[in-house]
Amino acid sequence: MRIGLKDLAVSILLLISSFILVNKLLNPTPIQIIVTGEGQPIVVREFVTYTLIDVIVVVASTIIVCMTSFYILFSTRLEGKALNPSNSIESDIKFALRLLEGDQKKIFLLIVESGGSILQSEIVEKSGFSNAKVTRILSELESKGLIIKRRYGMTNKIEINREMRTVK
């Protein structure tokens, strides 16, 4: 797994803001109430509390920690789906081909090699199977969610289901 410069910068920002947040929460600002008079100044009361600056630093650090955490958690999922949809369908096709056997695999491979869309009559011609056998195999592939059949004149247009992962 390669870590890019952007991911490294976000990780460092997460660590620094986390350190600042924990440090401010564990070490509030000490405040002394001092009374000055003619003689020596007298400390009336001493306590620790969070000042307005402390609250601003805690809120800013919390926001940065949340944003960087969400980026780290979800960036790989978002990039994988948004930037490489073709890579996803290719891996789905390879996976489906490993699960299929015999005639189903042969028919599915014909559909893939034709660019993901082919007429049912062409499958009959290229495969050498009878029309009934091709219809039966295509129905099995459709029930598995691997292809979609659409009427196309006197035949069917067969397409690879681009959303085969979402099929129940």
Can you put this structure into words, describing what you see?
With 168 residues, this protein is of the alpha+beta class. It has two domains: 79 residues; 75 residues, Arc Repressor Mutant, subunit A. 61% of the residues lie in helices and 18% in strands. The protein has six helices and five strands. The longest helix has 32 residues. The two termini are 31 Å apart.
Strand content: 15-25%
Mean pLDDT: 85
Can you tell me the overall shape? rod-shaped
Instruction: Let me know the largest β-sheet.
Output: 3 strands, antiparallel
User: From the alpha-carbon coordinates, what is the Rg to the nearest angstrom?
Assistant: 32 Å
Estimate nothing, just give the exact number of structural domains: 2
**SSE topology string:** HEEHHHEHHEE
Uncertain parts: 80-85
Tell me the distance between the termini. Answer: 31 Å
List how many beta strands DSSP finds. 5
Q: What is the strand arrangement across the widest sheet?
A: 3-5-4
Classification by helices and strands? alpha+beta
Enumerate how many helices there are, as a single number: 6
Considering DSSP H and I runs of 4 or more, what fraction of the residues is helical?
A: 55-70%
Write the layout of secondary structure elements.
Layout: H1 5-26, E1 29-35, E2 42-49, H2 52-83, H3 85-99, H4 102-113, E3 117-119, H5 120-127, H6 131-143, E4 147-152, E5 155-160
In summary, what is this structure?
The protein has helices spanning 5-26, 52-83, 85-99, 102-113, 120-127, 131-143, and strands at 29-35, 42-49, 117-119, 147-152, 155-160.
